[in-house]
Every structure is written in structure tokens, then in C-alpha cells.
Write a structure and sequence with these properties.
By secondary structure, the chain is an alpha+beta fold. It contains 9 helices and 10 strands. The strands form 2 sheets. Strands 1, 2, 3, 4, 5 and 6 form a 6-stranded mixed β-sheet that branches. The chain binds (3R)-3-hydroxy-3-methyl-5-(phosphonooxy)pentanoic acid.
Length: about 300
């Protein structure tokens, strides 16, 4: 049997503007992960068991654009495996779907790694990342590539679309509380709506994206110098710019202000927005109190994670 696991992720700064070439910061969230087991099967066919999404099927009964089927077909095409071996594939994931935690990219990365190792087709991290980006493009339109990158490398990433990946140093580990609105919001839609705004007034929105990019750059400097107050303030500024892009929602705004009032140093939505998750930067001893306030204000779930 061959196994592989990939973490969730959150975007700390720069979502949406990153699609237009500006920098963004993202970090892995190891508390949630996607796990894949691949084993030879005595039954003919490729049998997929993914209980979290209620999927129990043979590969050929799935439409070829099904997210899991497309990973398997594309990987076998790339590795030139023919005929397909008989396999049992088990996929489990505790990463909430469509909430900005990278569930799709994590399943793709874990599945590509487990399958390729099982058939002795060696893939470097660069190849896994490029493969996962192609799969993201199939399902998400015009993704920047930040999700597959941070999940493949499982490290903090300073990401600029089309450029070599850079990680950054965390001078002083810091604590983030993630609050889930429980509202599932497809990233493709919010990215599409931001694109419409941009198409209608490129000068205006490029100025906004420039500001977001400058915040991401400054945030990297704050993290590298361990300046947490500055970092919190930058989160607040980034959230305001995301609101102007229509990426927020009443539920996200509520959780963001609840976190600030409960003592967070700063808070913002994270990822595509409209629903999904928000994040709050907190002193470690405030993390539990902020998480509790978020739950009382309607968050469906919270995760406390340390970035180091
Ligand atoms: O919703 P998520 O976490 O998959 O993040 C989307 C981030 C965007 O910048 C909005 C889109 C992208 O492809 O980078």
C-alpha cells in the first residue's frame, strides 16, 4: 500500500490581487489534511472510496471531468501507464470543501503523489505542483496557482504568479484563529465577479490591486521582523480593500469585527470570500477567547493554528 497526505492552507494576504500578478502570502494548515491510500486490487478496475464526499465508484463510471477522475486520468496519461492497473484508492479529507482551505488542491496533491509512487513514476515537487496547477485550471477557471503551491511545498510561501516560489522566514511564531462562516462559496464566482469589476474600470481596480500587493509585501517584512501589531493592522487594511472588491459578505464582516472586539490584533477574510473562512491574528493567550467569541457569533467551526 502507498500513502500520501497533504495539508490545508490559508491565504494570509493578497487574495484576488494575486490573480493579477501581485504578491500574496499563504501558509499550510496542518491541523486539517487530505489522505490517500493506494493498494493493488484483486478486482478488475480502479475502485475509489471517498466516504467524506459519499463517493464509492469505479473510475470508468465517473464523468471524465469529475475532479477525482480527472486527476487519475491525467496522471496515467502523463506516466504513460497502459493498461490501467487494478487498484483500490481510499481518499479521506477533513478539510472543509469550498471554504478557502484548499481542499481540492490538497486531494489532488495527495492523490498524485500516492498514485505516482505506487506505479513507480517518480515526480519531483516541481512536477507535482505543475500537475496540480493544471488540475486547478480545469476546475477553477483562472486560478493564480497559490493553493497548489503552498500545499505541494507545505511551507509558508510568498507567491507571485508565474515566478519561482519563495518561502519567507517567520522571525517570531504567531497564532491565527480561523473562523468558518459555514457558507460554501465557490471561488470561481467571486474571482469572476472581481474580473467583471476590473474589466469595467481597469485603472480603478489596478490601483486597488497595487495597494493589496504593497500590503502583502509589507506584511512579509513585518513577519520577518516579528512585528505583530503592524501585521494585525495590515490585515485590517487588506480586509477593507477586499470589501471594496465585493469579496466579503455580512457573515464574514460580522466575524471579522467580533474577532477584533474580542482582542485580535487584526482580522480579515481569507481566500475567495463571500463565505468560507476568516482569519484573526491573536496573541497566543487570547486564541481560545477569540475562538469562543467567533463560535458564539455564529461561526460553524474554528481552528487555532501556529505559523512558524
Ligand atoms: O478560496 P481559495 O482559498 O481557494 O483562494 C482563492 C484565492 C484567489 O486569489 C481569490 C484566487 C486565486 O486563484 O488565487
Amino acid at each position: 500500500m502507498t500513502t500520501s497526505s497533504a495539508p490545508g492552507k490559508i491565504i494570509l494576504f493578497g487574495e484576488h490581487a494575486v490573480v493579477y500578478g501581485h504578491p500574496a502570502l499563504a501558509v499550510p494548515v496542518t491541523q486539517v489534511h487530505a489522505d490517500v491510500e493506494v493498494a493493488d486490487s484483486s478486482r478488475t478496475g480502479i475502485w475509489i472510496d471517498a466516504p467524506d464526499v459519499n463517493l464509492h465508484a469505479e473510475l470508468n463510471t465517473l464523468p471524465s471531468d469529475h475532479p477525482i477522475a480527472s486527476v487519475i486520468h491525467n496522471l496515467f496519461f502523463l506516466s504513460r501507464v497502459s493498461p490501467f492497473p487494478s487498484l483500490n484508492i481510499k481518499i479521506t479529507s477533513k478539510i472543509p470543501v469550498a471554504s478557502g482551505l484548499g481542499s481540492g488542491a490538497a486531494v489532488t496533491v495527495a492523490l498524485a503523489r500516492a498514485l505516482s509512487m505506487h506505479i513507480n513514476y517518480a515526480m519531483t515537487d516541481e512536477q507535482v505542483n505543475a500537475f496540480a496547477y493544471e488540475i486547478e485550471k480545469l476546475h477553477h477557471g483562472t486560478p493564480s496557482g497559490i493553493d497548489n503551491t503552498v500545499i505541494t511545498y507545505a511551507k509558508p510561501v510568498y507567491f507571485v504568479k508565474g515566478q519561482a516560489i519563495e518561502t519567507f522566514q517567520v522571525a517570531k511564531p504567531f497564532t491565527i484563529v480561523i473562523g468558518d462562516t459555514g457558507i460554501s462559496a465557490p471561488t470561481k464566482e467571486s474571482v469572476g465577479d472581481v474580473r467583471k469589476l476590473w474589466e469595467a474600470d481597469k485603472t480603478k481596480w489596478e490601483d486597488v490591486f497595487d495597494k493589496v500587493g504593497a500590503i502583502a509585501q509589507e506584511a512579509r517584512n513585518s513577519i520577518e521582523r516579528g512585528k505583530m501589531k503592524e501585521l494585525g493592522e495590515l490585515m485590517n487594511q487588506n480586509h477593507a480593500l477586499l470589501q471594496s472588491m465585493t469579496a466579503s459578505s455580512p457573515e464574514l464582516d460580522k466575524l471579522v469585527s467580533v474577532a477584533r472586539n474580542a482582542g485580535a490584533l487584526g482580522a480579515k477574510l481569507s481566500g475567495g470570500g463571500r463565505g468560507g473562512n476568516m482569519i484573526a491574528l491573536v496573541e497566543p493567550n487570547q486564541a481560545e477567547a477569540v475562538a469562543k467569541s467567533l463560535l458564539e457569533a455564529g461561526a460553524k467551526n474554528t481552528i487555532i493554528t501556529q505559523v512558524s
